[in-house]
Structure to design on (288 residues):
């Protein structure tokens, strides 16, 4: 790599955080331990925490002044606007994402993902396997034999996206992908990372690849935005996101039939049992 390339930032690590004082140091240490042959930056979106999260980040930022950039908000703006603020600040050719309550475990994570994307132009996103832990650092899930996976647009549309958690995701920093911030429906999503992956594929025609290695931990805890909410509330949010996807993405007649079958199998009874009859009818009509 020549000096000009060395001086350029190749990867922007984008992290959003809110009230993560128990976890943010571990996340930052995972970013900082990365062993790469390229420069990378760390952009932290701190969403007006009420605990010591910002103070901890500022301490790290003062020590690693050329690496860590703090994007702070004077009031709480929510996860999606916070996410878009760090994506907008990213200078790298690639963006690696990780929330402030998760962390990386492999010092070669960024290098392995960059090497893959540099040599495989047909993929817009590269992920890897993750270990799922609880708030006591006990393993909840870990695939015994990680394997390489790949997903196309139709796969993700139909909910096939295993081992693509946000703490594993690296994507190409492309204008057409970041256009998602101009889509009004995106601000209504709950599982915004899934819709981001889908939008990245739809806007580029490229695929997702999952490396067969465990290189991060995803943490389930009571303060989690998604993972620990009531199951009925979570299902309601999943139905809402499904409808946003149906209304705002394009798909072939074949995929439309598969989406209808998916809805009837996964969500129809939930809508009926919760007296969401008009919503069920609207979804079915949109897919007929």
């Amino acid at each position: 790599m020549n000096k000009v390339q060395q001086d350029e930032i190749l990867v922007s690590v984008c992290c959003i955080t809110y009230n993560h004082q128990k976890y943010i140091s571990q996340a930052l240490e995972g970013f900082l331990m990365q062993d790469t042959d390229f420069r990378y930056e760390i952009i932290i979106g701190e969403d007006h925490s009420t605990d010591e999260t910002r103070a901890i980040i500022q301490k790290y930022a003062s020590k690693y002044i050329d690496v860590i950039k703090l994007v702070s908000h004077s009031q709480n703006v929510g996860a999606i606007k916070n996410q878009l603020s760090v994506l907008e600040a990213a200078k790298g050719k690639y963006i690696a994402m990780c929330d402030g309550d998760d962390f990386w475990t492999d010092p070669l994570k960024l290098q392995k993902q960059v090497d893959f994307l540099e040599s495989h132009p047909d993929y817009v996103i590269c992920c890897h396997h993750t270990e799922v832990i609880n708030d006591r650092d006990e393993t909840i899930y870990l695939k015994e034999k990680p394997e390489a996976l790949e997903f196309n647009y139709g796969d993700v549309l139909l909910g096939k996206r295993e081992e693509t958690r946000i703490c594993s995701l690296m994507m190409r920093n492309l204008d057409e992908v970041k256009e998602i911030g101009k889509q009004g429906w995106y601000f209504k999503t709950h599982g915004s990372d899934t819709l981001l992956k889908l939008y990245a594929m739809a806007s580029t025609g490229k695929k997702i690849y999952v490396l067969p290695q465990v290189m991060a931990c995803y943490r389930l805890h009571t303060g989690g935005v998604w993972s620990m909410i009531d199951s009925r509330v979570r299902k309601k949010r999943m139905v809402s996101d499904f409808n946003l996807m149906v209304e705002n993405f394009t798909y072939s007649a074949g995929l439309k039939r598969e989406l209808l079958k998916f809805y009837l199998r996964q969500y129809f009874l939930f809508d009926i049992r919760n007296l969401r009859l008009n919503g069920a009818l609207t979804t079915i009509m949109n897919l007929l």
Observations:
- The beta strands are 9-17, 39-46, 68-72, 94-97, 103-104, 123-133, 139-141, 149-151, 170-172, 207-219.
- The domain at 3-219 is CATH 3.90.550.10 (Spore Coat Polysaccharide Biosynthesis Protein SpsA; Chain A).
